[in-house]
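Why show two proteins at once? Because comparison is the fastest way to build intuition. When a single record is shown, students tend to memorize it. When two are placed side by side, the eye starts asking what differs. So, the first record is below.
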Amino acid sequence: MTLEDSWRAESRHAMHGWDFSHLNGRWQTEPLPWQYEALVRRHMRPADQWLDIDTGGGELMQSFRHDSALTSVTEGWAPNIDLLRQTIVPTGVTLYADPDETLTNVPTEAFDLVTDSHGALPMTNIARVMRAGALFVTQQVGGDNNYGLSRFFDEEYVPTYPKNTLLQVAAEFQAAGLQILEANSAMAKMTFADVGAIVYYATMIPWEFPQFDIERAMPKLHQLQDLLEAGMPLQTFESRFMIIATKPV
């Protein structure tokens, strides 16, 4: 298989849920000043009615091992909804199909803990589904995520979610009546071990690489390969922010 054929194969590689295990050993990301899983575990109580927004394939949600009868999730992408119906719904988890990512079909004041890892932020409805005293824990992808790499492939690239910044979202939290308890933002360096890993990554995240086409990208991919062979690391930067908020009693 030629190098170009291997890149084409990476662009066709299927993914279910939100699972990047295909890149194990082929990428590395610097740690953030916080750990989202630790934040959730710190605030999750055994008796909490818990809602996980935009749960993907449920991989992260299941890692917390919360009582299924007390766990609800939302998901908007049809393939993931089908997957969740086959995997977690039979265990007792409640699934709210939410293709519009608005939470409109989620009951009011039903949850003690709401979490959101890289999902939508319909703030008015998030506040609505929270009980008084409930907590909301989220980690989000900043609007400038992977900006340099995206611009490398497309000189006219404009971020899809430019308003997704800590300041903007924190202001929306307050406007929705939530009280911010903790907030932080950071940039984490991410390094790819091979060009094929970048192809896979760009194919799986079309909102950051909206014009990515494997054939059109071949000259750029060869440039990356030349840089890699010259000893330059293939790096980009992940933009992240976190907020913990509560609904006042």
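Second record. Ask yourself what differs from the first in the token line.
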Amino acid sequence: MPLNEKELLERDAKRNIDEELLQAVRDLKAGKVGRVTKVEVSPLAASRLRIGLSQSEFAKLLGVSLRTLQEWEQGRRAPSGAAKSLITIAIKKPDVLKELLAA
């Protein structure tokens, strides 16, 4: 059964929040984490990061809107046509796009 407001205040008055936070940091550093969340990055986003471009810069290079690029990276939409070809190059040969940007 949930605690009422008075019970919550009484419980919290007995807590040492500073020590709890410090112990949580110690546990984290020691690898005593209860839950680890892995975030999988799409191949497109990974390639963009390897090239060193922001989403805005990469979208401009591909000739698409920022929102379109975000939807591709998040897997909600799939690119087609010329954008698909450029993305394939970005994934397989990111240095080629870096070279194009430098020119």
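One difference worth noting in the second protein: The mean pLDDT is 86.
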